[in-house]
Design brief:
7-stranded mixed beta sheet, 8-stranded mixed beta sheet, 20 strands, globular, N-(1-d-carboxylethyl)-l-norvaline Dehydrogenase, domain 2, about 50% helix, 2-enoyl-CoA Hydratase, Chain A, domain 1, alpha/beta
């Protein structure tokens, strides 16, 4: 068999008769598990099997990553014809099975990250050796985009890991480093360098001329027992119960992953793979998977790369960042920026306050070191990049300054003037405000063209979204700078136009206010909280109000100079003011809000809510409660789109999912309208407007879409 070199891989047979296939997809930024690659690989593998002079094949990579997953771009066109989809998946399974049962050894020499389809490619090899590098990740992330591992992973992993551990990998998309993968049994060996990796692979081929996969070995026993063993039954029943409790049936991928194991593991591997292919085909046709792929992968990847930046502007590099305010937000911004390699000046009103802000980074790093995610040397290098200061002049040489002081326009105006007095005229100044209009704050600036909003979410080190707000006089240079900085620190930017509350805070406010309104009307607080979580929200609206604090909500309302505020805002304000002033319930920080927070014990809803808000209701049903919570957010998101605050449906979806935890399976707050059904959504909101108030009134643009039978994605400004 001749050596091969093409756009997908290189194949070379050595004098020892062992072929080395190095994946190198030169036309892709990284190696991808695509139809083109799989077809070419299978053809070559079968030719190698047929060649009697080839003793075995080593599968490795010429790139820094082995194969980090499937080419999800192909998923747009997959599943349109279920019959063809099932048949093509089975063709792949049959081809991989022919390799596995050929009697000729194939070894995966994994020298970089292998995820999803890339790792399943390795499972079709008889032996797996991984470079012992902590930067390498292994796992099956398919469930995170609404799918299951359909390249054999769902069916084969339980044979290696046992049912319980396999579920950790498959249901949660768990990612592990090489050492843990070896311990779990996902791989067979480690190598310390590239030379040892290839040599170990060659040695194994020489010692195992007729290998058999565990699922073809009648003597193999599944770790922990099979499906019908006591442990297997207990594990699957427990997993199904926990899944129902946590996912509430909203994520079909996880249900199907369980079914593949339950239905397929007692059967032969070939029947199990058929079951896997059938459930995968069903998933591809589901609206949940389509939503999660579009918002959670396709559009997310574009946003990560900075698609929102003005194309005409040159790259804006932030070598030195200034932060005004060393509280929780400022300290978090300092940490993520220093982690990205930037020098950071963290300023507060006192040196003690600035030092305390820097200490926050040290606490995060100490935790990372304890979990072996960092080293003392790396921590020290990061901390050395953060300079705590109380001197306004320390902002002098910064490329970008982010103000993160208390939400008080007067205070923000003072620090703006103080900083601009020393900051170079061509540098960009940003405010981390969550509600105050940027145009209003920019009045204190002598350079409003370089003034912009960069709204982080708390805790900064964990939350992926950054909302960039464009004021009336903000120019493209400042937008480009904000987007470039956000991408540089590994966050995901969306760019919105100015208004009070912008997009995320404004819409998030409807989630918490609608929950409190229903309590006020007499809906049991526990029902409001539990239904919200059943609809897919991470936590209930009352718990969120307590976290944010009722006191802050009052401050935001009272500091808003807008005349004639909407009636629902006034209603929410009065309810929270009553709880604060008359019942001393200010929020979690004070141990009393909608919940009680007894020390050392779980929080419990305040019994006084049932006594204070008690009435006879004619709509006490789960469906109405759930739809009020979700529909209200979607209507407000559309208003932001219609008013031009949002620039696109995509931004609205990403902002809702990443910013305040709107359920990803719906696609986001705007795609949710299509998820429900446009006409159904409009009809239900019309009913709610009559029963509960004008806040459910359908905007004219949305009604026009409904009457035209169009999708939310057809909306044009």
């Amino acid at each position: 068999m001749e050596n091969i070199k093409n756009d997908l891989f290189e194949f070379e047979v050595g004098a020892d008769g062992i072929g080395v296939l190095s994946i190198n997809q030169v036309n892709n930024p990284t190696n991808l598990f695509s139809t083109e690659f799989v077809t070419a690989y299978i053809k070559l593998a079968h030719e190698a099997i047929a060649d009697k002079d080839i003793k075995g094949v080593i599968l490795t990579s010429s790139r820094s990553m082995f194969m980090p997953g499937a080419d999800l771009r192909e998923l747009k066109n997959m599943g349109a014809n279920p019959k063809e989809q099932f048949e093509s998946t089975m063709e792949m399974h049959h081809a991989f099975r022919a390799i596995e049962t050929s009697g000729k050894p194939f070894v995966a020499a994994i020298n970089g990250t292998a995820m999803g389809g890339g790792l399943e490619l390795c499972l079709a090899c008889h032996h797996r050796i991984v470079l012992n590098n902590v930067k390498i990740k292994l796992g099956f992330p398919e469930a995170k985009v609404g799918l299951l591992p359909a390249g054999g992973g769902n069916s084969k992993v339980p044979y290696l890991l046992g049912i319980q551990n396999a579920l950790m990998y498959l249901l949660q998309g768990k990612e592990v480093r090489p050492a843990e993968a070896l311990k779990d049994g996902l791989i067979d060996d480690l190598a310390e360098n590239q030379e040892e990796l290839i040599q170990k692979a060659k040695d194994w081929i020489s010692s195992n001329p007729s290998p058999v996969q565990p699922w073809d070995n009648k003597k193999h026993r599944i770790p922990g027992g099979n499906v019908w063993s006591p442990n297997g039954v207990q594990t699957l029943v427990g997993a199904a119960g926990n899944l129902g409790k946590l996912a509430h049936g909203n994520y079909p991928a996880q249900n199907y992953i369980l079914k593949v194991i339950h239905d397929g593991l007692p059967l032969t591997i070939d029947r199990a793979l058929e079951i896997e292919a059938r459930y995968f085909t069903k998933l591809l046709a589901s609206k949940e998977a389509k939503n999660m792929i579009r918002t959670g992968f396709t559009e997310l990847q574009k946003a990560k790369k900075g698609i929102a930046r003005p194309k005409s502007e040159p790259q804006y590099e932030v070598k030195k960042l200034g932060i005004l305010g060393a509280g929780m937000m400022g300290a978090g911004i300092a940490y993520v920026s220093a982690k990205a390699g930037m020098d950071v000046v963290l300023k507060d009103v006192s040196q003690e306050g600035a030092d305390k802000g820097k200490a926050y980074s040290k606490s995060l790093l100490d935790k990372a070191i304890s979990k072996k995610r960092s080293t003392p040397e790396k921590a020290e290098a990061l901390l050395s990049r953060i300079e705590p200061s109380a001197d306004p002049a320390s902002m002098k040489d910064c490329d970008l300054v982010i103000e993160a002081v208390f939400e008080d326009p007067k205070l923000k105006a003072v620090v703006t003037a103080e900083t601009e007095a020393v900051l170079a005229a061509d540098k960009v100044y940003a405010s981390n405000t969550s509600t105050i209009p940027i145009t209003e704050l920019a009045k204190a600036s002598k350079r409003p063209d370089n003034f912009i909003g960069i709204h982080f979410f708390s805790p900064v080190e964990k939350m992926p979204l950054v909302e960039i707000i464009v004021g009336e006089k903000t120019e493209d240079k400042a937008i480009a700078a904000a987007v470039d900085y956000t991408v540089a620190i590994g966050k995901i930017p969306i760019v919105v136009n100015d208004s009070r509350g912008f997009y995320t805070s404004r819409c998030f406010g409807t989630f918490v206010s609608e929950g409190s309104f229903m309590v006020e009307e007499g809906v049991p607080a526990a029902m409001v909280e539990n239904v919200a979580k059943a609809e897919g929200m991470a936590v209930g609206p009352l718990a969120v109000i307590d976290e944010v604090t009722l006191s802050l909500g009052l401050h935001v309302y009272e500091s808003d100079p807008t005349p004639n505020k909407p009636a629902f805002q006034e209603r929410s304000y009065k309810m929270q003011k009553d709880l604060v002033d008359n019942h001393d319930r200010k929020g979690k920080k004070w141990g009393a809000g909608f919940y009680d927070y007894p020390k050392g014990m779980p929080k419990k809803l305040w019994p006084g809510l049932a006594e204070k808000y008690n009435s006879n209701l004619d709509y006490l049903d789960k469906a109405t409660v759930g739809k009020r919570i979700m529909h209200r957010q979607a209507i407000e998101a559309f208003r932001c789109l219609e008013e031009g605050i949002l620039k696109s449906v995509v931004d609205g979806d990403l902002g809702s999912v990443l910013g305040w935890g709107f359920p990803i399976f719906t696609g986001g707050a705007l795609s949710y309208i299509d998820f429900v059904g446009m006409q159904k959504f409009v009809a239900e909101c019309d009913d709610f407007a009559n029963r509960f108030g004008e806040r459910f009134a359908i905007p004219s643009g949305l009604r026009a879409l409904s009457e035209a039978g169009k999708s939310i994605h057809d909306y044009k400004h």
